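Our consortium's second objective concerns turning raw sequence data into structural hypotheses that experimental partners can test. To show how far this objective has progressed, the report includes one record in full. It was chosen at random from the queue rather than selected for favorable results. The single chain below, 336 residues long, was entered without modification.
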Amino acid sequence: MLRYQRHGNMLRLKKSPKKRIAPDIMSILAGIDIGTNTLRLLIADVKGKYSFKEIRSERRITRLGEGLIENGRLMPSAEERTIFVLKEFGEILKGYPVEALAAVATSAVREAENGREFVDKIKVETDFDVEVISGEEEARRTFLGVVAGLNNKNGSLLIIDIGGGSTEFIVSRNAEVLNTISTGMGVVKLTEEFIKSDPVSDRELEGLRNAIEKEVKGLKDSLNSPANAAFVGTAGTITTLAAIDQNLTLYNPLRINNYVIKKKSVDRIFDNLKSMTIEERLNMPALEKGREDLIIAGTAIVLSVMEKFGFSEMTVCDYGLREGIVIDLYNKKYSN
């Protein structure tokens, strides 16, 4: 029924108050991903489950998980680097009308003996409340981010998220999760354990690839991935491979997101990288500083999965956990 209100000598249509329905609401939200190698910030204007407009994004490599595999603890220097960046993120956030913020920590913090102490320290020094999430929860939120960034969300997908301390595998069909597995493979862990020489030696490469193949071997049956699934990859290793394959001198998300890279290209890149010194890799414009030592282990994971599952190509997604954190926050905020 239409309702009117008098305004002077005129009648105007009286607008009924809108119900608080998520798809019609725009909300400025922020997410922080405290990873084993990289810290990421996203401020976004979110309108729906998979609909948002990026307002600002930041990424800093702090190598929080440095030395964790040897000591079992987060190192003071790594904690200091990370808190310094979190304070920087805090200053950035002050410049935007952010309605809600979610900050999550992943593999390094959940595995470290002093992980809870570090979370408490972050609260004291930055006032951020950090949630330490499980590998399965990390996979779930990563999926939300990846699906938001893909041109083709439908059909069967096998999604891989290669992180510094863990690698998550997600099987989906028509934008619904069927299965997830979080593994202990991480590029920081693998690099510190197996790669000591510069350039990497043949013996080190053999040990690295054997360890990865042992981990990947049982995944195919456990995941129950459909035979016709498309392969999708996210996170730093994979976006770096896309940048290298296109000879990008500046990182351009529009050129990265939904880029399809062939296995033969990954093979070629790996052959080139493993023969280079770290200094030579640093001179590659497409290779972000802070990944020059980790790219070997990350590329070895990609190749092992492609070989084991029979994939000839991979779709690259620039969206991941950071975007999923914001989407998940939106869904919880407006679930009622």
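The partners drew two points from this record. The chain has two domains: 22-135, 151-318. The two ends are 26 Å apart (CA to CA). Both points have been shared with the crystallography group to help prioritize constructs.
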